[in-house]
Amino acid sequence: MVSGQTTIEVVDLSDPANPTLASTLDLTIFPGGGNIAGANSVAVSNGLVAVAVGAATVTDNGRVVFFNSSGVFQGQLEVGALPDMLTFTPDGATLLVANEAQSAGSDNEPGVLPNPPGSISVIRLDRANLNNSTIQTAGFTAFDGQEAALRAQGVRIFPGVSASVDFEPEYITVSEDGSRAFVTLQENNAIAVVDIATATVTEIQALGTQDHSLAGNGLDASDRDSGSNIQLQPVRGLYMPDAIASFSANGQTYYITANEGDGRGVSEARVSSLTLDPTAFPDATTLQADGNLGRLTVSSIDGDTDGDGDFDQLFAFGSRSFSIWDGAGNQVFDSGDDFEQILAANFPTLLDDGRSDNKGPEPEGVTVGVIGDRTYAFIGLERASGIMAYDVTNPAEARFIQFLPSGSRCQPRGPDLDSRRPEPQWPAPADRHP
After folding, report:
1. Cross-strand bridge partners of residue 258
2. Cβ-based neighbours of 169, under 8 Å, separated by 6 or more
3. Which residue among 5, 157, 246, 367 has the highest number of C-beta atoms inside a 10 angstrom radius?
4. How far apart are CA 97 and CA 328, in angstroms?
5. Closest listed residue to residue 85, CA positions, set 128, 110, 118
6. What is the pLDDT of residue 20?
7. Cα torsion for 399, 255, 406, 397, to the nearest 10°?
8. What was the pLDDT predicted at 168?
């Protein structure tokens, strides 16, 4: 497991009820280890452990470091800037790395240089000598010059920045047949589809928005309204997923997104600070009160649809939900306001009203597991400290099963195994259960 530090913690799960820290791998003792920021992601396949490691300077290229199952160093490869997540293909022959490539700005401002291009490293593994593995790079330069068309489809691209620089791969899932990868471009509110055989980005799928004025899509938009107050509001939520997971149903590929939302500081504003269009928002004074929408953080670069300087629409970061999409990028299910409604009714102490003006419970991690003949999705809520479980066997009719609170609300320090901020989770495959 990784925690963004310079070590990897190996946990013994032979007794699932009593996990113990088995060992710790110090990444700084390996070649070049003195120039790293920390480990961002770890993946395991057939006894091979791969770790994504960012450079001390965020805009420099990172690396993938390999170990065997005993923790013995096996080699390392250079990849793109800020490798944020990695995953193996189902056959273990290829490793995919999402190189987020943020700018040098303190809050990832796109106009601050250097701002390296985002990419996906496609590594054909030579397990006999990992340093001889073949690396191909799936980048986004083919989409440069198409920014206007992409924006018209709903893809967010920061003004004055090319697509190849603004796209920031966050998380990857691979189709069961190993032919395609679906990659979240969180800040861009889009999914990149990668043909793994050719290491090519073939498509950018715009995700659209959640209409919080529709029944079943409410939200608590204020931290100054004396607790839970889930209401329909004239706001659209940019899905902006972090984690993504794929599964098959009836022979079709689907993917699930945890719609956390993420803005760059330069593109964020409180509703109270904006000039609202008087036609679109005739009740602006009421809406901009702190107890209503005034405190809600929204995008300052989206919403002026007619270019006259005021805001005709409001776009919040994240939709506080999870979604299921088919392989073509069509939404077949969204959980709407389930998470906040379930927490408010059954776990009110875990519904942190102090985050209502930001992104609410922040669904961040997602994984899929099969139990018997049923397929389940497990969505980690970072701010609500727990996991939502849904039956997704029928993707269009996903059904809530259970909320699993994690226990303590404390952020762990050191090798504390009772973390209260669940991000991605991975159920153990059936053949690895103790």
Report:
1. 322
2. 84, 98, 99, 100, 101, 118, 119, 120, 183, 184, 185, 192
3. 157
4. 22
5. 118
6. 94
7. 0
8. 98
Written in H, E and C, the secondary structure of the chain is CCCCCCEEEEEECCCCCCCEEEEEEEHHHCCCHHHEEEEEEEEEECCEEEEEEEECCCCCEEEEEEEECCCCEEEEEEEEECEEEEEECCCCCEEEEEECCCCCCCCCCCCCCCCCCCEEEEEECCCCCHHHCEEEEECCHHHCCCHHHHHHHCCCCCCCCCHHHHCCEEEEEECCCCCEEEEEEHHHCEEEEEECCCCEEEEEEECCEEECCCCCCCECCCCCCCCCCCECCCCEEECCCCCEEEEEECCEEEEEEECCCCCCHHHEEEHHHCCECCCCCCCHHHHCCCCCCCCCEEECCCCCCCCCCCECCCEEECCCCEEEEECCCCEEEECCCHHHHHHHHHCHHHCCHHHCCCCCCCEEEEEEEEECCEEEEEEEECCCCEEEEEECCCHHHCEEEEEEECCCCCCCCCCCCCCCCCCCCCCCCHHHCC
pLDDT at 410: 34
Evaluated on CA atoms 158, 160, 163, 168, the torsion sign reads: negative
Look at residue 226 in the predicted model and tell me its pLDDT. 86
Ranking 54-63, 410-419, 421-430 by mean pLDDT, the lowest is 410-419
Residue 30 clears pLDDT 80, i.e. is over it: yes
What confidence score (pLDDT) does residue 434 get? 32
Q: Delimit the domains of the chain by residue range.
A: 207-434
Q: What percent of the chain has pLDDT over 70?
A: 93
Q: At residue 411, does pLDDT exceed 50?
A: no
Averaged pLDDT, 360-371: 96
